[in-house]
């Protein structure tokens, strides 16, 4: 069906609808511009007569990651392009979710109509159409959709999709990367201000400034993801980062921007350490917070060298090249020389190993070939065990530092007490009862001080 045929078909269905009394029309009330609602008539049309939306933000990242899509994106309404879109639309839900949707549509039909342009391009309901196409009964392979007028501007369509998505019902949330791409589009292509985007996405509705700052931060998070994508030799897909949440990225964003201007090398090491952890499946926030730029050589590598399977090869897999870069082909270039000592850790080289498509990992300087999954599991175990060791070391440090910090805090409290006393002592409300209470508290302080002083003398920290 050509575009002209599709437009004519939709006009025909609308004309047939208008032959029946208006009270029998189904009309969908949609968000409009200027706060005014838009009333659109609903028609019933075959699922093979509508077009899946290649600009749907439910599958935007997946399509950008798909090499096949790159040759089809210029004409997204061809049969081949539509098949690629449909594949990603159905994969956006689990097999169980898709089966439940098909069963519901088969038994109960559509609960709510979808929305499409006057040219038959769906704004939402892409998944419902894909599921309806899989039903065996031809009589059920129809979809109810509200038709937008020709006057709707293309810039309005993205906002309409967003507003329909915000009306949650049982819709699947956007993935992390799809939501970030949506924010980027609203800013760079639709020219919405940060405040407008925050309002549309209901980000920090209690504070305009906080909402603006969060939108700005999320756009910077997307920039960080693009940096992380390009670290491995085989660049990572956007969907790779959907395993993360905003808190992990927010922590990384804060730590990275705190040092990138003054120490770009440390900032890069932080990115690489973060990515290696995520690549092997270490994603909980409380674990990633302990992975700083010094974690991999100080804690991970010693644990990796103790691994029963690859421990003896860890130094070769993790040694830096002489110029600091990983040179293709293969992991054999991770070696500085024939007898690496493991003192230099090339985090990027390990990232290449655990993210490569090839399941075989040759060990440099030997005929041995390891399995990529074995290396990945070993690195994951080494990171998790290293985190536990670091937590224990930090706790021991805290215990040693605790007496010093307590005395410093006590000094600050006494200073505040003296300042507060100067303000309170001359007031009429500072009566005998309060004076007596203060006297008792001070005597207790003196007794505690003398006891601590005795302990410090006994420990030879201070003299008599």
Structure description:
It is a single chain. By secondary structure, this protein is of the alpha+beta class. It has helices at residues 3-17, 60-65, 67-70, 79-91, 95-108, 126-132, 154-166, 176-188, 194-201, 208-229, 246-259, 264-279, 285-288, 295-305, 314-318, 347-355, 372-424, 432-458; strands at 27-30, 38-46, 114-116, 142-147, 360-362, 369-371. It has a four-stranded mixed beta sheet. β3, α6 (126-132) and β4 form a beta-alpha-beta unit. α8 packs across α10 (208-229), α10 packs across α11 (246-259) and α11 (246-259) packs antiparallel against α12 (264-279). It starts with a helix and ends in a 6-residue tail after the last helix.
Q: What is the compact description of this entry?
A:
With 464 residues, the chain is α+β, with helices and mostly antiparallel strands. It is 55% helix and 6% strand. It folds into three domains: 3-174, no CATH class; 175-262, no CATH class; 269-415, no CATH class.
Key features?
single chain, 464 residues, 3 domains, two-stranded antiparallel sheet, 6% strand
